[in-house]
Design goal:
The protein is α+β, with helices and mostly antiparallel strands. The protein is built from 20 helices and 35 strands. A hairpin with a 5-residue loop joins strand 22 and strand 23. The longest helix has about 40 residues. The chain is globular, with a radius of gyration of 33 Å.
Length: about 950
C-alpha cells in the first residue's frame, strides 16, 4: 500500500510535472482494483487536507511548487491577518482584510504570495482556498431587530457580526449569551449567517460569563458515557499479584512524601531524598503510572488526546481525565499503595549526576504535605518556632532540611549554566459561591515550591536524556532560540535603562539574560524588563525531536512528571514502560508506528496547550474586571507597566492592569518616543516612562472587552530611581550599580549629560564615559566607566558598533566610575525634563541658523545649522570626532552632541554655556569648538560680538 509521505516526496522532486491520476497510476504500476481504490482515497484525502492541489485540467501537484503556502490563519481584531505556514522556517505572511475571502481565525488555508520585500523579509498574500474550518460555532451576545437579529461575537478576532434570520431566533432575546452555528461564512460585504444552537442565559446571570468562555474556546465540559464506563471499571486498590506479576520495584519501605497546594486533589508526583554512605545525595521522583490504567486507543485515551491537558479556570477545573482516575487510583494519596514510574538520581557533593535509573515501582506515601507547612518548617525562627508543626512531622524534619540543601544546590548549578528564571508575581482571584470575584491574593513562590520545581526539572532532564540516547520515539519539550530581530529589539530596550546584554543577536547565551534578571531583581523596572524579555522569546512547545530548551539552558528536556493533567506525559509513560518491558528497545514495527505518530501528537498537544492558556487568561481578566466594577471612582497607587503610542498601562499592587489613554492626558500634548518607550509632553517636557509610580482613579470597567480604564491623578517623585528618560537623555542625578544609560548622567540640560560621577565626565578614578551613538547617528552619550581617561583628557570612542552592543560599551555600562551613585555637583532637585531651560542673558544670545530639531530637542537626522543659544555647528567637533577635550561631558541644553569630543587650543578656556559660566578667552579653533564644555565659538560668534560692540 502506498504511503502518504512517499507520494508527497515524489511530487516535491524538481523533475516532477503535474500528472493526472491515470499518469500517477501508470507511474506506480498499480494494477490491482483494491489497490487503485485505496490510491484514489489517498489522493482525495491529501486534496481535502490541502497537501496536494488539483489543477483545472485535473493534474495533481504540491502547493509549494505552485506558489502556494499552506498554514493557519491568525486573525487580528483590526481586520488584517497572518498566515502561519506549516513550513517551520518560512516567515509569516501578512494578509490584508480585503484578501481574506471567507477565512476566519484558526482556519487552515492555502495562500498565494502576492508581494515580497527585498531579501525575503515581509511577505503579503491572498487566500486562495480554505482547507479546513476552525470556527464552526460562535459565542456572543444576541441583539434582536424585529425583522432579523445578529450576534456580536465575544472573540474580537471575529470582527463582523453574525446575521440571524427571523425564523432562527429559537426564543433568544436581546442581551442573552448564545451559541451560534455558522451556516454560511462571510464573503465580500456579506456577513456570516448562522442559526442559534444554544441559549446560555442572560449575560448578567451568575456563571454565564465563565460558561461563555468555555463555549468560546470549545472546551468539553463532561465525559461521554463510554469514557465514564471505562473510568468506573478502574480498580480502587492494588493487589500483591499485580505488583509481583509486573516485576515492580517495591519502595513502600522508603520515606516518600507528596508536596502540593492546599486545594490540590490530583497528587501525581512524590519525592524522597536521602544521604548515602559515600556522602552522595539520592533523589527519587515518583510519578503516578497513569498509562497503566489508560490503555492506548481506548475511549479514555482518545478523550485525553482530544483535550490535550487539564484547564484551570478561576472557579473550576476542566480535567483531562475523569475524577474517578485523577482523584482516585492515580492520585498518590497518603498511606495507600500506588503504582508509579520512578526516576532515581545520585548526585555527588559537586552535584554531578553519577548514576540514574528509570523503573516501574510501587510506593506508599507517608504524608500529604502542603507548600505552606513545608515553608513554615524550613523558615521557622525564634519569633515563629512552629513548634506544633515540628512535633507533628518530627520524623520528616531531617529529610526536609536535606531536600532544601539539595534543591538550592541544584538551582545554583542551573543558574550557573545559564537557565533563565522568570519570577513574575502571580495572583489568584477568589470567587464566592455565586462565582463573583471578591478578592485577589498574590501567590507566593516559597522555598517549598522551589524544592519541588528543582526536583521535577532534574527528573525531566534525566528522563529526556536517557531515552534520547536509546533512540526510541519520544516527545520532548523544546524552547527554540529567540528570533534575532526580536532579541536585538529587546537588547536595545534594556539599554534604555542602562543595562547591557552581552552577546550578538542569536549568539546571546541564556546566561546573559539571567544575569540581567539578577541585576534588575528588586528594582521598579524588574517586571517590565522581564515581560519584554519573555515576549522576545519563542513559545515552548512539544516536538518529536530533542532540539534543546533555551530558557532552561538544557540540551535535553521532556515533560514526564504530570500524566494526570498533560497528554504528552501520558504518552511517554507508555513508551517508557514498553522499553523497560522489551529490554531497553522497541520492536521494529512498533518503533516505526510510534515514530509516525509522535509529530502529530506533539503538534496537537501544543495547540491544545495554547487554547487552555487563552481560556485561563480570559477568565482571569474577566474576574479581575468584575472585582474592579464597584471600585469606579476610587484612587489607587500603581506602577506604569507599559507605554504605547495610544497611552500607558498601569499595574496596581493587586496585579490588576488598566489603561490611561493618551486622549485622557489633558495637561499637554504627549508624543510617544518608541526607542526609549516614553511619553513626552510637547509643552511641559513632562515624561512618563515604565516603572514610574503614579496615583490613578478607576474611570471605567468594560465587561464586554475585559478592559479597565484609568485616569491620572498624580505622579510620585522619582527619587533616585534611574529609568528610561534619565538614562537615555542625561537627566539622571545618580544611579546605582551597573546603571548608566545613553546620557552622561549630568546635571545640565535635558538632552546632553555628562559622565557618571563628578562634573566634566570625571569619575573618582579619573575615567570619562564611553560615548555611544543612537540609531540615526545624531545622538551621542556616554556610559560611565571605561572610555576616555579624564586626566589625559581623551574622549571615549563614540562610534556605534553594527550589533549595538560592543564590548567596550558593555564594560562601560557594567562598571560605572566610582561616585556615580552620588548626585552630580550642582544637580537640580528635580528632573530637567520637568523644568524649562533658563533664557540666556541678552549679551550672550547668538543669531544664526538653528539646526532642525523635533519637539524633544533631538536633532532631525541630516539637518545642519548652528545652535541658536551657542552658535555651535553640530557637525563640527561632535563627540564622534573623538578628539581631545579638557572637561568632557558638559553640554548645553538642546544640543545633541555628547561631551568629550572636539579639539581645544592650549590657551582656550571655558566659554559661556547654559549653566551661566562666562567665557574668559574667546580665542579657539573653530573646528571642534569646545567639545568638553559644549560651548560655541568660531566665526559666527565672533562676528556677533563685534556687531554688539559697535
Amino acid at each position: 500500500m502506498m504511503q502518504e509521505q512517499e507520494l508527497l516526496d515524489f511530487m516535491r522532486e524538481t523533475a516532477y510535472k503535474p500528472m493526472t491520476y491515470q499518469e500517477l497510476e501508470q507511474h506506480y504500476g498499480i494494477s490491482d482494483a483494491a489497490e487503485f481504490k485505496e490510491f484514489l482515497k489517498l489522493l482525495n484525502q491529501l486534496e481535502d487536507e490541502g497537501k496536494v492541489i488539483r489543477t483545472r485540467n485535473e493534474r495533481y501537484g504540491v502547493p509549494e511548487r505552485m506558489n502556494l503556502l499552506r498554514g493557519k490563519i491568525q486573525a487580528h481584531a483590526k481586520g488584517f491577518a497572518f498566515l502561519l505556514p506549516d513550513e517551520k522556517d518560512h516567515p509569516d505572511v501578512y494578509i490584508h482584510a480585503n484578501d481574506q475571502k471567507s477565512a476566519m481565525n484558526g482556519d487552515i488555508a492555502l495562500v498565494r504570495i502576492t508581494s515580497q520585500s527585498e531579501g525575503g523579509g515581509r511577505m503579503e498574500g491572498e487566500v486562495v482556498r480554505i482547507v479546513q474550518r476552525a470556527v464552526t460555532q460562535v459565542v456572543g451576545t444576541f441583539e434582536s431587530h424585529e425583522a432579523f437579529g445578529f450576534v456580536v461575537p465575544d472573540d474580537k478576532r471575529i470582527n463582523r457580526d453574525i446575521f440571524i434570520p427571523k425564523g432562527e431566533f429559537q426564543g433568544a432575546v436581546t442581551g442573552q449569551k448564545v451559541v451560534v452555528k455558522i451556516i454560511s461564512y462571510p464573503e465580500g460585504r456579506s456577513a456570516a449567517q448562522g442559526e442559534i444552537n444554544e441559549i446560555l442565559g442572560h449575560r448578567n446571570d451568575p456563571g454565564i460569563d465563565i460558561l461563555s468562555i468555555i463555549r468560546k474556546h470549545q472546551l468539553p465540559e463532561g465525559f461521554s458515557d463510554e469514557v465514564m464506563a471505562e473510568a468506573e471499571a478502574a480498580p480502587d486498590s492494588i493487589t500483591e499479584e499485580e505488583i509481583i506479576e509486573q516485576g515492580r520495584r517495591d519502595l513502600r519501605g522508603e520515606v516518600i512524601v507528596t508536596i502540593d497546594g492546599e486545594d490540590a486533589k490530583d497528587l501525581d508526583d512524590a519525592v524522597h531524598v536521602k544521604r548515602l554512605e559515600n556522602g552522595n545525595y539520592l533523589l527519587g521522583v515518583h510519578i503516578a503510572d497513569v498509562g497503566y490504567y489508560v490503555k492506548e486507543r481506548s475511549a479514555l485515551d482518545q478523550e485525553a488526546f482530544r483535550r490535550g491537558c487539564s484547564v484551570y479556570l478561576v472557579d473550576r477545573v476542566i480535567p483531562m481525565l475523569p475524577h474517578r482516575l485523577s482523584n482516585g487510583i492515580c492520585s498518590l494519596n497518603p498511606q495507600v499503595d500506588r503504582l508509579t514510574l520512578s526516576c532515581e538520581m545520585e548526585f555527588d557533593p559537586k552535584l554531578k549526576r553519577v548514576r540514574h535509573d528509570v523503573f516501574t515501582s510501587v510506593i506508599r506515601t507517608k504524608e500529604r504535605m502542603t507548600y505552606t507547612n513545608v515553608r513554615k518548617i524550613l523558615t521557622a525562627s525564634e519569633e515563629e518556632p512552629e513548634t506544633e508543626l515540628k512535633e507533628r512531622y518530627a520524623d520528616l524534619l531531617d529529610m526536609f532540611t536535606l531536600m532544601e540543601e539539595l534543591a538550592m544546590k541544584l538551582r545554583k548549578k542551573r543558574m550557573k549554566r545559564g537557565a533563565i528564571d522568570f519570577d513574575f508575581q502571580e495572583s489568584k482571584v477568589i470567587v464566592d459561591e455565586q462565582g463573583k470575584a471578591v478578592d485577589i491574593v498574590k501567590r507566593e513562590r516559597s522555598v517549598a515550591e522551589q524544592i519541588i520545581e528543582e526536583f521535577m526539572l532534574a527528573a525531566n532532564e534525566t528522563v529526556a536524556e536517557h531515552f534520547h540516547w536509546l533512540r526510541v520515539p519520544f516527545l520532548y519539550r523544546i524552547h527554540e532560540d529567540p528570533d534575532q530581530e526580536k532579541l536585538l529589539h529587546f537588547m536595545q530596550f534594556a539599554s534604555n535603562f542602562g543595562y547591557v546584554v552581552k552577546g550578538k543577536g542569536n549568539s546571546v547565551h541564556p546566561r546573559a539574560l539571567q544575569t540581567l534578571l539578577e541585576e534588575i531583581h528588586g528594582t521598579k523596572e524588574e517586571t517590565v524588563i522581564s515581560t519584554v524579555m519573555l515576549r522576545s522569546m519563542k513559545q515552548a512547545k512539544y516536538d518529536a525531536e530533542s532540539l534543546g530548551h533555551f530558557g532552561l539552558a538544557a540540551e535535553f528536556y521532556s515533560h514526564f512528571t504530570s500524566p494526570i493533567r498533560r497528554y504528552p506525559d501520558l504518552v511517554i509513560h507508555r513508551v517508557i514502560r514498553e522499553v523497560l518491558e522489551n529490554g531497553g528497545a522497541l520492536p521494529e514495527m512498533r518503533n516505526e508506528a510510534l515514530a509516525a505518530r509522535m509529530p502529530d501528537i506533539a503538534q496537537h498537544s501544543s495547540e491544545r496547550e495554547r487554547v487552555a492558556v487563552d481560556a485561563e487568561r480570559d477568565t482571569d481578566k474577566l474576574k479581575k474586571c468584575e472585582f474592579m466594577l464597584d471600585k469606579v471612582g476610587e484612587e489607587f497607587d500603581g506602577i506604569i507597566s507599559s507605554v504605547t503610542s495610544f497611552g500607558m498601562f498601569v499595574e496596581l499592587d493587586n496585579t490588576v492592569e488598566g489603561l490611561i489613554r493618551l486622549s485622557g492626558l489633558t495637561d499637554d500634548y504627549y508624543h510617544f518616543h518608541e526607542l526609549h518607550m516614553v511619553l513626552i509632553g510637547e509643552r511641559t517636557s513632562k515624561v512618563y516612562r515604565i516603572g514610574d509610580e503614579v496615583k490613578i482613579r478607576v474611570s471605567q470597567v468594560n465587561m464586554d472587552d475585559y478592559t479597565i480604564d484609568f485616569e491620572m491623578v498624580d505622579m510620585k517623585p522619582r527619587s533616585d530611581f534611574k529609568g528610561v528618560a534619565d538614562a537615555g537623555f542625561g537627566a539622571s542625578r545618580g544611579g546605582g550599580r551597573k546603571r548608566s544609560g545613553f546620557g552622561r548622567g549630568g546635571d545640565t540640560g535635558a538632552v546632553v549629560g555628562r559622565g557618571g560621577g563628578k562634573p566634566g565626565g570625571r569619575g573618582k578614578d579619573g575615567r570619562g564615559g564611553d560615548a555611544r551613538g543612537e540609531r540615526n547617528g545624531a545622538q551621542a552619550g556616554g556610559r560611565g566607566g571605561k572610555g576616555g581617561r579624564g586626566k589625559a583628557g581623551e574622549a571615549g570612542s563614540a562610534k556605534r558598533k553594527p550589533d549595538g552592543a560592543d564590548r567596550r560599551a558593555a564594560q562601560g555600562a557594567a562598571r560605572p566610575a566610582e561616585g556615580a551613585a552620588r548626585p552630580a555637583e550642582g544637580a537640580a532637585e528635580r528632573s530637567p525634563w520637568q523644568e524649562q531651560a533658563k533664557p540666556l542673558e541678552p549679551a550672550r544670545q547668538v543669531r544664526g541658523a538653528r539646526a532642525r530639531t523635533d519637539m524633544w530637542g533631538l536633532p532631525i537626522s541630516g539637518s545642519r545649522g548652528r545652535d541658536a543659544d551657542t552658535g555651535e555647528d553640530p557637525d563640527q567637533g561632535s563627540s564622534f570626532e573623538g578628539g581631545r577635550g579638557g572637561r568632557g561631558g558638559r553640554g548645553n541644553r538642546g544640543n545633541r552632541s555628547g561631551g568629550g569630543g572636539g579639539q581645544r587650543t592650549e590657551n582656550s578656556s571655558r566659554g559661556a554655556n547654559n549653566s551661566g559660566e562666562e567665557g574668559k578667552n574667546k580665542k579657539r579653533k573653530r573646528k571642534g569648538g569646545d567639545g568638553g564644555n559644549g560651548n560655541g565659538g568660531g566665526n559666527s560668534t565672533a562676528a556677533f560680538v563685534r556687531k554688539k560692540r559697535k
